[in-house]
Amino acid sequence: METQEITTQYSIISEKYTEFKDNQNVPARINTNDESVPDLFKEYVYAVTGWPVLIDSHTARELSTLSLTIPKLLHQIPSLYFDNNVKKIRDFYFEGDEMSAEFAMMCHKKNIETGCRLDLTYTEDGFKILEANIGSSIGGWQIHSFENLIRKFHSELTENYDQYKSKNTLKIYMNFLIEQILSKVPSIKDTINIFIDNGFDESDLDPEFADQTSLLFFNDLFKQELAKRALTGEAYSGNVSELVLIGDNLCFKDVVIHGITVLSMEIKVNTSVFRAFVTDKVYFPDHLGLKMMGDKRNLAVLLELAYAGKFQPEENQLIIKNIPWTAFIENKNIIFRDKEYNLLELLKNNKDQFVIKVARGYQGKDVFVGKFLSDDEWLEAIHTALATNAFIAQEFSGSIDFLAPNAQSEWTPHKLIWGAFGFGDSYGGVWVRMSEVKTDVGVINSATGAVEAIVFEVADK
Q1: Model-level pTM?
Q2: What domains appear along the chain, each with residue ranges and CATH number?
Q3: Contact yes or no for 261/285 (Cβ under 8 A)
Q4: What sign has the CA pseudo-torsion 23, 24, 30, 31?
Q5: For residue range 215-234, what is the model confidence (pLDDT) as tens digits?
């Protein structure tokens, strides 16, 4: 199946629709309380369909290229757009806090690679990148834990296992994590210990109990991957504030820590962690510079740089093709579709064509889709954006319709959001969230009711 064939608006199982759609044994929503599901996900809070999304190798390669290229281009923004000027970076990303900007640039210049998940929609004009989520807290990797259960309902997939493959995103990430720690912490010999900041603070009740199952799951996979390298180690969890310097080493209690991942949205770094990071005692991808890389205004910056020819020709072309028109919301004149407009007037008069979103939001929060709002609600969103100076306007990129089963197992049109993972030079696969067209409210997110689906990449014949 070539990429353009997706635009037939056929179905999530592609040309297999007529062959498989009448399989009554496939649940519209799986029950995750199955013995094949890890304990951590037996009470999974989001709806998951029993049907996979099938894509061919051509489409997988396109998603791979995007998910590996965009993070590397984002990393060039401070130098290409701001000329590494701390005062400009301070005013743009850090609300005038020069010390934070100084520390962030110190971290950024260490060239630390971290995980990225692009959220994309597939339009009549191909894939469009809606946002780039950066750091350890990106979700979506959980879906692979349901693969064995989903395969139980599809004998045709089990019998042709080699033809239908799902990327184990967490395993790919785990290998990436270990390789990064080995490359960034020269003092390591035969042991790697990692610390997972679970986002709890002192007001939480019994955080050790709440995090126990998650730690066991993560630690088991971590040890498996270490063993393949003849290494030992352990994963620990808690609050990053518990880490302290003992001599030259960063420690959790009396254990030397070599890598830190932060799973909470708010990153709080103490002095010990910062010192260990800058002296190469710990791999810390969620450092202070991450606030720059995760800002949604960067898509507008990438477009501006691409139109100015600041990247390689093929990179400029990729940006212009795959990032929809995006601009910071200010009272200014802009170019939209080769014509000059006042941005505020353009938004006010064409609300159905645009989306307004906050620069550092998550889970669909503070996203305003014009075609689903009244005129008054849209004007209020514009006023909010102007007051805070931290919003972007983006051309609405509507997903084409894909046939997928709704909650009643009826195959109806759905809108899809694709989450493609990149870890350094490793493509981590893709995961889908979908919403039935007749109930679509514009924001397609698991936290707001979208249904999750596993993706199988189909090998070319």
Answers
A1: 0.91
A2: 186-282 (no CATH), 325-395 (3.30.1490)
A3: yes
A4: negative
A5: 888 999 999 999 999 999 99
